[in-house]
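Let's sit down with a protein and look at its sequence and fold side by side. Once you have written the record down, we can walk along the chain together.
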Amino acid sequence: MTTKTFETDVEMEHALKLILSGKKNSEELRRAREKGDKFRHEMRAKYGPRSIAVELIREIRDGE
């Protein structure tokens, strides 16, 4: 796993804590949504409009 993935995980956890505390309109949440949208577009451009979830789950489960 790369450092960027770890940083993203930490950012998403922080965003979830903000949402759960009722701070849904914060600047941090806006940035998190923008990063998520950018990541989603990159994955669609790279892999196309197919579902890659099953493949990713198998990779994690099988330790590949």
Q: What stands out?
A: The two ends are 12 Å apart (CA to CA). The chain is about 75% helix and 0% strand. The CA atoms of residues 57 and 63 lie 10 Å apart. The mean pLDDT is 79.
